[in-house]
Amino acid sequence: MALAKVVTRDWARRRTAKRERLEAVRSFTSGTSGRVLDAGRTGDALQALLRPGDRVALEGDNQKQADFLAEALADCDPDVVHDLHMLISSISLREHLDVFERGVAHRLDFSYAGPQSVRMAQLLADGKVEVGAIHTYVELYARMFVDLTPDVALLCAEQADREGNLYTGPDTEDTPTIAEATAFHDGVVLVQVNELVDEVTRVDIPGDWVDLVVRSPRPFALEPLFTRDPRQIGPVEVLMAMLALRGIYERHGVTTLNHGIGFDTAAIELILPTYGEELGLRGKICKHWTLNPHPTLIPAIESGWVESVHCFGGEPGTERYVAARPDVFFTGRDGSLRSNRVLCQLAGQYAVDMFIGSSLQIDACANSSTVTESRLTGFGGAPNMGHDPHGRRHASPAWLSLLTGEASAPRGRKLVVQITQTFRSGGVPAFVESLDAVQVGKDAGMPIPPIMIYGDDVSHVVTEEGVAYLYKAAGLAERREAVAAIAGATPVGRDIDERRVQELRRDGLVALPEDLKVDVRKADRSLLAARSIEDLVAWSGGLYDPPARFRTW
Amino acid sequence: MALAKVVTRDWARRRTAKRERLEAVRSFTSGTSGRVLDAGRTGDALQALLRPGDRVALEGDNQKQADFLAEALADCDPDVVHDLHMLISSISLREHLDVFERGVAHRLDFSYAGPQSVRMAQLLADGKVEVGAIHTYVELYARMFVDLTPDVALLCAEQADREGNLYTGPDTEDTPTIAEATAFHDGVVLVQVNELVDEVTRVDIPGDWVDLVVRSPRPFALEPLFTRDPRQIGPVEVLMAMLALRGIYERHGVTTLNHGIGFDTAAIELILPTYGEELGLRGKICKHWTLNPHPTLIPAIESGWVESVHCFGGEPGTERYVAARPDVFFTGRDGSLRSNRVLCQLAGQYAVDMFIGSSLQIDACANSSTVTESRLTGFGGAPNMGHDPHGRRHASPAWLSLLTGEASAPRGRKLVVQITQTFRSGGVPAFVESLDAVQVGKDAGMPIPPIMIYGDDVSHVVTEEGVAYLYKAAGLAERREAVAAIAGATPVGRDIDERRVQELRRDGLVALPEDLKVDVRKADRSLLAARSIEDLVAWSGGLYDPPARFRTW
What we know:
Chains A, B: Pfam families: Mal_decarbox_Al (PF16957). By secondary structure, chain A is α/β, with parallel strands linked by helices.
């Protein structure tokens, strides 16, 4: 037998390294389990734990931030800790980039860099940061189980006990996934917590997966990203919401769905109890949701539209409301929300029939992007929701209503809907010949343009002009015409003549308001079940506690 | 404000029901936490817990089976427990269908029914079982967070303590996912365990998520599905493995990958340390894997080819070997494997560049299926690995080497490879004009044919004749020609003339062995690094303990 090249090697190098790392921080810990790190020694501990070149996952989620650990990392001595390879899903804090500017880290794999994207571009230009790749959220987590396993994970949670058991509270987000990837490949898991307690409220992550906990001097930062003030919803959003309800939700019988962030989809949520009720659609559409606890969904929940909501993360201010609606939300033994981004993404990809999200820019082929300036923001989670999952095999009426595929292999298709006004504020056209993202990608040296949702995955586009049924287009040329027909006075919309629009309407590729029997005169704010944050609080029976910045009354 | 239709309702019906259910079984439990169920009262407990119409998840995984609970359920009195809606990912045991035959359950959502598919067809015909839908594994779990949340979950694990903390051992598979969907929506989680202990070896699932544990009189059943005896690998499999290595792995620089089950891919694993070494490919390909611990991967691991392996589940006999290779496998604090189907599926979908699997039947358009008789087996996990995930955004050299997409939106593509001999044993052609699955789907009243992998997702097909590079085909006609060129003397292969094959070779759509510089004369069993299970044991240094049925020496 060909036993020629057996390699003699140490097969437990990661385990040995972990033992040595933990040994090096032992003097900074207390408690019988040795898991509790003295907060005042956090910087020393990081310098003892980390080795040059380490792969470090820093929690950096969409909403919550391990900010205390991020600061301590940024303060490390670059002579001691350098050339780290950071895995940060959302670059949200100044400190996330300070670690590169100071030379503590050099390589970066990430998913989203919204608030810090300008500075990031500068650091890239200066050679201070080398980007591995830009991912969607779940891709980055997926790689943690393949070729980007963390050596150290810096996470955050609400509470820990002295054995390291963690309570994440409603904002579980990505903590269990990163902890699993790290703990089960002999990486070190260090968690900042808001409270150290004798017994955690509920165990979200077992202490067996956690090596060190440290009490942060202040609660971790958390952004209310999913709160939309109904005051900012105008008649055009209401009109688009009516068109979407009649032309898509009702027509395809959409019972399971995901809404993106934005005022356009918030308007849809807010007209369910009014316009939706008038159309007799309650119980027929919008029953099962995958999305964060949007405050604008409260009136629909209270009106009996919503059977279940599974969440990627939480939303500040909705804690008491969610806890009081356990039949609808996924909650734990303690009563509070359990969220989980990876499982909600799984649900959003394989169990729901529709994704609808706002777009900032759409090209003539229906490719879309939220990049609209000369900066690279990354992808976040939209591409995973906004594509047709070819791995799906079970059928549902909505999915089957978009029959697609070659003759020998017919199949259904996910509804991927883009919604936007033809012009954004300031008169900037939303429909353009070429996406800004194409140039941004070129400038950043990306191998392919950073497109958020591909045109061939988009099934419908909604504007105030009407609905384009792109899934019915026979080819790219027809898809371009259907987009043009609802693109209004934008450069893309000016290309099509009236006669062709009539043909597209006749063939069912385009529907205008009158085709959908939507009375444009009714499209005003009076259709909104709540017209202010105050109204949302009233709908919730006082259970919704909006963050201070939204308390405008 | 339009507060017209607020529904007054009880928002905690599931929670109340759960409390009542647990109250009803209290007299069958012991222990201070009340979580330990007396094994002798399991049947009584199920009759007290369950209500007609309940949605019940029964663990039925790909490998492990909650068989004690399945038996107890099948023995329930159908006058008391009836019309259950079962969620079983893999219908593997007689009892899984007994529950329908006896009228305990009526509705079924499932993923795979291999061993029981004939009886299942009969029960369907008799109206004893009503199928909701047939899913892939992850789709079924995804729906547990959307519209198929379990009321009761019947699961299995290695150990529990009296607080309900669970140790799943290496065979974690789907237990955490089903437990999370159930526990966090006020369902009841009941787990059969092999051992009740004072302290579990490691906590895989926190006791907070578990309501009841019962010690099964015997360990749960577990199938060694991923063990392939190298004795059954012949020269044709070796030839195909050589073609795949040169024509795909080397050419595209595949470093991250997933192998399906089968002798074809086992042959590839076994020639890495011989033929692969000769080609100088170690360190250049096949570094990061997502797959169960295949015994046939041991020689490649021992020869230093493999940097990491993340697993969907375990494999009986590999426990000691895996525990001794923690740098490669994901293991826990206790040293044993941690698997997780959902996370490995995530990794296989979004983090690896290639899937390669054996097919039993491929049509002229490259659609493929493992259904080859008149029965409905379902999908399992292959479709999720075997498609091009449009939600992926990060680039890698292998992915970019298959540049695809419209001109305005170029992108890379996953390598989805199908491998098969042109004829199966008994002279049955693997290439056919129409898949048996099409007729099977019709007979079963399925809305669309149950195709395992769609032809437009397949990038390459390998046979003993050569490799077809389908991703280069300009359209369906050219794809059909490329398939025909390597389909040998099958009905599909006879359609193409020699001149056209030459053109396809010239244009790079097809490569024959000589094009790939594969010396056909070298293709024999001497290239296999292990030629028997005994050899695999030797490669493992005695750490691999093959199950009795494989001990043939």
